[in-house]
User: Fold these one by one.
Assistant:
Number 1:
Amino acid sequence: MQTVKVDLKDRSYNIHIENGLLNKTGDLISTLPVRKNIAIITNKTIAPLYLDIVKTKLKKTGFNVHVIILPDGEEHKNLNTITNIYNELIMMDFDRNSSIIALGGGVVGDMAGFAAATFFRGIPYIQIPTTLLSQVDSSVGGKTGVNLPGGKNLVGAFYQPKLVIIDPEVLKTLQITELRAGIAEVIKYGVILNNEFFKYLELNIDQAVKLDDETIAYIIKTSCSIKADITTQDEKEKGIRSFLNFGHTIGHAVETLTNYNEFTHGEAVAIGMAAISKLSEFWRFTDIENSNRLIALLQKSGLPTELPAFSLNDYIDTMMKDKKRAEAGINMVLMKQIGEVFLKLKTADELSLAMQTALNLK
Ligand SMILES: NC(=O)c1ccc[n+]([C@@H]2O[C@H](COP(=O)([O-])OP(=O)(O)OC[C@H]3O[C@@H](n4cnc5c(N)ncnc54)[C@H](O)[C@@H]3O)[C@@H](O)[C@H]2O)c1
Ligand SMILES: [Zn+2]
């Protein structure tokens, strides 16, 4: 078993990674200071695949196990679903000594985590992420939350889990497009902080996409270490944590313009990373070798790198409406070289000129 420690003083926790780890759920959770009352929150797709094993192992170690099955889909990541979770917890006689397990991808994890953060002002929760994206990204770092009609992830809390249990074997039932979505975030980690890891990906990406055991375990562990490192340095996103948004500003615009139904989040981020590397080149912060390397690796992974055909105005308007932007413009994460990025404020005019020239938008 490999372990990454997220070091946040009294809120520190471990991320355990191993093939077949779902079988050890009971043993691992029983080492935590949690009481016997526990609710597994999962969804309709994951329940038939992995609920039984987790439930059986927990019962075997003496837990009193409840189950909440949510509908599947980002469209259910809202306050209605959270209210339903609260109501079910109340019906199960949950109190502040009970805890929650999130068994699923980022959607389940974000909602189960937010419910845990707010129910009785906070009860313990454990993440068992089942998509590559949730294993390398959303289950680590303690961001929880839901969407509002006005935008994604607008309501939430920073709330750390007590433990993250990663079983890479569950990725075998994941759709290939979902796997690639996770790969996009993995590539992002190389670009923002670790040139050596990026080189490893250049050499081993085919093995990763084929889910070779050793390769995927190494990739998950390294990605979790990078995210854990960033989180411990900047838990509340005042500085370095914003580097994780590399490729995301343009990526979000792509998601919004295509109504969230043409690309997975990871695909939109891949497009966003390719675009921002070209803009970084245009502003002379980086050179063409770096953007070419990034684009080549994305393409080798089967990820898209071309902006969908919307007008320059559509892109700029969408980015300027982003609720998370600054007053004077947009704080963008730009590339200096593979393994090094930085934050810079760009006005709408600067962005417009660059996107027109470097990305041929009309
Ligand atoms: N909290 C954070 O820091 C953070 C970071 C990144 C993304 N997110 C959030 O994560 C969400 C996206 O997460 P996601 O990409 O995991 O999507 P997801 O949770 O929607 O999962 C994708 C699909 O795969 C299915 N699935 C999950 N595991 C499976 C498995 N092992 N086998 C077969 N099918 C499986 C799911 O039911 C779903 O249909 C978004 O809501 C995003 O906002 C949060
Ligand atoms: Zn992302």
Number 2:
Amino acid sequence: VKLSSLGEFGLIDRLRRRTTPSPLAVRGIGDDCAQHRLPPDEELLTTMDLLLEGVHFRRDWTDLEHLGRKSVAVNVSDIAAMGGTPRFLYLGLGLPATATVEEVDAFAAGALAEAERYGVALAGGDTCRSASGWVIAVTVEGSAPAGQAVGRDGARPGDIVCVSGSLGDSALVLQRLQRNESMSSPLAQRHHAPPARVALGRALAQAGLATAMIDLSDGFAADLGHILEQSGCGAEVELDQLPLSAAFRAAGGTVELAVTGGEDYELLFTLPAARQGELSGLAQRLNLPLTPVGRIVAAPGLQLLAADGRRALPQGGFNHFG
Ligand SMILES: [Mg+2]
């Protein structure tokens, strides 16, 4: 069915009928602005992402339902990375003339399913005709009790560097897609439907355990680099401590890919060494591996230590390491 038969307002109405308003909504979709309360003494967290067809995604590598899921999950992941609770979703869609109602429905089904998974309510958006491919703009707002949100700037020398889940799975799937090879579905899920670690982020913020935190979108080394830059310190990471999944190893994934590959959407955080003992209980409670992989040092820069614990691999030479 041609989208033009529905019209812009028809499309918005179609989406609105499939959403449940947030309990915090004063006025939802249909007015000039969404109007919300926040829980008492909470601060607002806002993040947005722009996804362009041909730049950030390819229609032949991903279906629209997964694209809908992922576009919501990556924004929820940013709220998780601050230790917040995701609450409101805003969706902007630029649609090519060839887009059909069925395609928009598939995208919306994925986006709304993921929103529901994280307790996020669609609270507004906009649609228009795109001159070329799909344009997807997603904004997610969340909140955290005042003073609890965790930034990238709090890491201090002596802190432990820790990462959730496993590294490199998503990058391995992308690498195979680029070679026109398919992957087994558990690994493929890690790329097409990445998790947002909301419960972990909240728990770390609530306990005041994380001194700095970021979600892994650009890759372990690059994202740790963001923490180091903002915190004004350096880090030593033991490469043989990096958590690699059995499926990743079996499929030939390398340590280099785990360090440089993006889109894991795990949380990378630092914590005081004296509180490292609290990690195992938290990991057990959340049923999610939390792996210490290194420490924060005063000297700037990221040192990647090989298995013998001595040989420092300069980042610039890392491309030759395999
Ligand atoms: Mg982020």
